[in-house]
Task: structure prediction
Amino acid sequence: MTVPGVARIERRRSRLLVALVAIAAAAALVGTTVGVSLALFTGSHLVTADLGTKAIFPGERDTPAFEVGDSSSGTEIDASSPFRMVGDGLTSTTSAWPTAFSAGNYLEFDFNDSLAAGVPVPAAQLDFSFASSGSGQACFYIEVRTISSGSTLATYGSAGSPLGCVTGTTIASFSIPIAAISSTDVANDLRIRVFGADSLGASMVIDQATVSGSTPYQSFTLYPIMLRDAADGTPGTTPWGLDAP
Result:
C-alpha cells in the first residue's frame, strides 16, 4: 500500500534527479565547446619575415641602344652594333695589320658610361671575339686606358706574350679579366686599346668587343660607342650611329 504523500515525494525526487542530470550534461557540453573555442582563439604562430634593402643612386644616366631592329624598308633587319655579341652574323673588319706588333698599330674602343658613380667593381672582363680575314695567324694584347686623359691604367699581355691568337677565318672568343676596372668611375671612363699583328698582313674580323662585370648591386655590360682603327697606322674614327650628342 502506497501512502499518497510518500508517492508525491518520490515523484518530485525523480523529476529533480532528471533535471540535475540534464543540467550536468549541458554543463559538460558547454565546457567542451568553450575549451575548443579558447584553443582556436588563443593559439599563436610565429612567422619569420626576411626584409632586404637596395641602394638608390640618384642621378641622370643616358645610354644609346645597341640592339636595334630596322624595319624602315618594310622588312626588319638586324641593325645592332656589330660588337654587341658573338655569333649574331654582324661583324666589323679592320684595316690591314702589320706582320709584327708596333706601338702605332692598334684599335681603340671607347665604351658607354651608363653606371652609377662611386661603386666598387669586384670583377670585370673584356669579351673579345675575332679571326683573321685570311689564312694567317692574328694575335693581340691590350692596354686599359681612360677616355678623359688617355692615360694607361694597365697592360695585359705583350708583343712577346699575346693574350690570344687565331689562325684562319674561324672566329675565336677570349675573356680577359681586367682588375684595373676597380670601380664604376673607371668603367664610365673606359678605353681599351688593342694591339694586333697578322702573320700575312691581313685584317681582323671582329665579332664581339664588350666589357662585362658586376657590382654589389647589379651586373652590367658596356658596349663601344667609338671605334678608332689604326691597324694600318692611319687612325680612322667610327662612332656608333645612335650615340647622338
The mean pLDDT is 86. Residues 1-35 form one domain.
